[in-house]
Write a structure and sequence with these properties.
Layout lengths: L1 E5 L3 H13 L4 E5 L12 H6 L4 H4 L5 H6 L3 E3 L4 E5 L4 E4 L4 E3 L2 E4 L3 E3 L12 E2 L4 H12 L5 E5 L3 H12 L3 E6 L11 H15 L2 E4 L1 E8 L3 E8 L6 E4 L2 E4 L3 E3 L11 E4 L4 E7 L11 E3 L4 E4 L5 E3 L3 H15 L12 E4 L5 E6 L6 E7 L2 E8 L2 E9 L11 H6 L6 H7 L5 H13 L6 H8 L18
Parallel strand pairs: 1-2, 1-7, 2-3, 7-20, 9-16, 10-11, 10-16, 11-12, 19-21
Antiparallel strand pairs: 4-5, 5-6, 8-17, 13-14, 14-15, 18-19, 21-22, 23-24, 24-27, 25-26, 26-27
Helix pairs in contact: 1-8
Length: 463
């Protein structure tokens, strides 16, 4: 059997690992439009800061991964489309690669609105490793003193704080009424955005739209207009990062009978390539996983979830089924967290149409839980900074005492709270489908999050 995988991200890599657990003989080909081996797509701000080791960035081991799993890796091979009737994948150069089974794992691309001046040098996205390396080069050259980020989603916000830490004066322009508009509701988004501005000095312009980029060859200014107004003003900029979301690469199946996720009432696409619980498309020999696909979530709904963990999960399922197994995906969940140190945020699940909202605030932690029929459908989390003292009862602190002289100072200086808590909420409520019981509610109200797993070991680091 000959298997062709289009794409080289987390879904593709996980699929290869699962496939080889079952089938060690079949030919596996990976076609990638990028020149790099598989890398962690959620670490681009680390690449810009240059604070990530190659073994962490190329988390599958680089070239060794393809050698270990006997994969014919073909970088720089951009795929134009698939012809599933003839069972071939067609590259941009016109080359045709035949397959017996195919996995579409080409992910999503950065959506760039048709803004005047977008072709100027210095205007970029921050989606790929090449994007991040280019941004780092511009900053290290000393030419970037002021930057404007268009869009206040997770990537835009993480990049804003990264540039701020690198000494760049940063402004963020967002057309919605809050930062992280798809992660947080108005209340939580306002808390997060206000705290971020206070802690960093990053300027955030909400309910503003970008009209144009100005400059000769290189961008020099961004024309901005308040929403609903006809008056513009200008922000000086040596660099612009456009972070206005991503779109699935559904162009790969244009002209085929492979179904795409469509809103039947509106008659327009609302997601990626449609797959069943086995990650199969409407063509049983073509599978899809990751950001290119709309899979089935834990509640049985088709949803497009363009995030790293669901991509790995779906890729693993697809790999087994490419090899002839019938493994069902237990259901995707959207779990996202913003890796900012000044103030953190996380969310997961579904927020719309909830029957009950539970808002909890204690110290620097804010949690909102969304319930339907007594079960948690989603949550939002914000961890705001405070001056904390170390808890002498924490065993980790005692173990580290005297071993690393500056460890305590570094620990207290890191003012980002909440990612661990956000992960606990995701795992307990959404992945394990736990109900909101009186015990669970008390644990949340007292913010004893680890008590959800084991009350005996709930000794917090901070008091």
């Amino acid at each position: 059997m000959k298997v062709v995988i289009v794409g080289n991200g987390p879904a593709a890599a996980s699929a290869v690992e699962a496939f080889r657990k079952v089938d060690t003989e079949s030919e596996v080909i990976i076609l990638s439009d990028e020149r790099h081996t598989t890398y962690a797509p959620n670490c681009m701000e680390n690449v810009i800061r240059d604070d990530i080791l190659p073994e962490a960035l190329f988390y599958k081991g680089g070239e060794r991964f393809y050698e270990k799993y006997r994969v014919d890796f073909r970088p720089g091979k951009k795929v134009r489309r698939i012809d599933n009737r003839r069972k071939v994948v067609i590259t941009e150069s016109g080359e045709e690669v035949s397959y017996d089974r195919c996995l579409l794992a080409a992910g999503a691309y950065a959506f760039v609105p048709p803004i005047e001046g977008v072709e100027l040098k210095g205007v970029t996205t921050a989606k790929t490793l090449d994007d991040a390396l280019q941004i780092r080069e511009w900053i290290s050259s000393g030419r970037v003193k002021k930057a404007v980020i268009v869009g206040a989603g997770p990537i835009g916000i993480e990049d804003a704080e990264t540039l701020h830490h690198l000494g760049v004066e940063v402004s963020v322009v967002e057309i919605f009424d809050r930062v992280l508009p798809r992660m947080l509701d108005h209340q939580m988004g306002k808390i997060y955005g206000d705290t971020l501005q206070k802690e960093t000095g990053i300027r955030i312009l909400l309910e503003h739209q970008v009209v144009a980029f100005h400059g000769e060859k290189w961008v020099r200014a961004v024309e901005v207009r308040p929403r609903g107004s006809d008056r513009s003003f200008f922000l000086e900029a040596d660099m612009v990062i456009v972070s206005t979301g991503v779109r699935p690469r559904t162009s790969l199946v244009e002209g085929t009978d492979i179904e795409v996720h469509i809103d039947r009432k509106l008659g327009r696409p609302i997601g990626g390539v449609l797959v069943n619980e086995f990650q199969q498309t409407s063509d049983p020999d073509v599978f899809a996983a990751g950001d290119i696909a709309s899979g089935i979530d834990v509640w049985g709904n088709h949803r497009w979830i363009a995030l790293f963990p669901p991509a790995q999960q779906a890729g693993y399922i697809a790999g087994f089924n490419l090899a002839g197994k019938r493994v069902k995906n237990p259901g995707l969940v959207d779990y996202n967290a913003v890796k900012t140190r000044s103030v953190t945020a996380g969310s997961g699940g579904i927020f719309e149409d909830s029957e009950e909202e539970l808002f909890l605030e204690k110290g620097n932690y804010l949690i909102k839980v969304f319930l339907s029929e007594g079960r948690v459908r989603g949550y939002q989390f914000v961890g705001v900074p405070r001056d904390g003292s170390l808890n002498r009862g924490n065993r980790l602190l005692n173990l580290m005492e005297g071993k690393i002289r500056t460890w305590k100072e570094k620990l207290l200086a890191d003012r980002g709270y909440g990612l661990e808590a956000s992960g606990v909420l995701f795992h307990f409520f959404l992945k394990l489908h736990r109900e909101m019981t009186p015990y669970t509610r008390r644990a949340l109200e007292n913010l004893l999050l680890r008590a959800l797993a084991n009350p005996a070991f709930d000794v917090p680091l901070y008091v």
